[in-house]
Amino acid sequence: MHILLTNDDGVYAPGIRAMYSELCKMGDVTVVAPEGERSSISQAITLNHPIYHRQVQFVPRAHAHAISGTPTDCVKFGVTTILKEKPDLIVSGINDGSNDGCSVFYSGTVGAAREGALMGLCSVAVSLDSGSSPDFSRAAKVALKAIRWALKAKMPAGTFLNVNIPDVSASNIKGLLLTSQCRVPIHSEFRQRKDPMGRTYYWLTGRPPAKRKDIGTDTYALQKKYAVMTPVLCDVTDSGFLNRFDRQGVLRG
């Protein structure tokens, strides 16, 4: 098995190194990651600037490909330019911080996995609901179970798996739960401050979504110390709404 591994925290982030160590148990791993942090960049691609590529020392006896672009650029570049054949699996992570609920729309980690799914490849995004001292090695072991499940489940084309893991000891994780995406918006506010020159600026901050006691959603289950797996579609068409109408009639009107 050949695995393409990327992230949005950058090629030197501890999360991707921990994930690499576990994925090596499954097959050959090629790391193609941003040269620096690219958080909250969603599925952005680089169009107006060149993309630079260099090899860097990743772990002892292994190199990684550092890309000047986005996580999605890394997937595109890895699949089309670095690898001679398409990989069997794409993994993005481990992200430092959860990507449950509406975070899937903002996350570069999730954006990379979505790009893999659009290419028709089995893809998994992995994030850790990290605290002050995140244990990525422990999270990677849990993630490996979710990844093996995804491969066995044979997800349909255009679907990827979004995995979020609580940052607690293995004995305190209640289980690996299949969930739906929480749709409660992320509440944000802009805090007003002054810079050293006396100019006013604003800093965007956020709070977790309001707790809804629905164990079937990723956000609530994660809060209850479950590791959660959410299958996410690339096609966001509201088919139910669309099918209520005669599309030809709409065009004629």
Q: Kindly state the mean pLDDT as a whole number? A: 93
Would you identify the CATH architecture?
3-Layer(aba) Sandwich
Briefly note the CATH topology name: Stationary-phase Survival Protein Sure Homolog, Chain: A
CATH class: Alpha Beta
Weakly predicted, low-confidence segments: none
Write down the domain tally.
1
Main-sheet strand order equals: 3-4-2-1-5-6-7-11-8
Helix fraction bin: 25-40%
Q: Roughly what fraction of the amino acids lie in strands?
A: 25-35%
- Cα end-to-end separation: 53 Å
Give helix and strand order, one letter per element, not per position.
Answer: EHEEEHEHEHEEEEHEHH
Using only CA atoms, what is the Rg?
Answer: 19 Å
The tally of helices reads 7
How is this structure best summarized?
This protein is of the alpha/beta class and 253 residues long.
Outline the secondary-structure elements.
Layout lengths: L1 E5 L7 H10 L4 E7 L18 E7 L2 E6 L3 H12 L6 E8 L11 H11 L4 E7 L6 H18 L5 E8 L9 E3 L8 E8 L5 E8 L10 H6 L3 E7 L5 H4 L4 H6 L1
Parallel strand pairs: 1-2, 1-5, 2-4, 5-6, 6-7, 8-11
Antiparallel strand pairs: 3-4, 7-11, 9-10
Helix pairs in contact: 1-4, 2-3
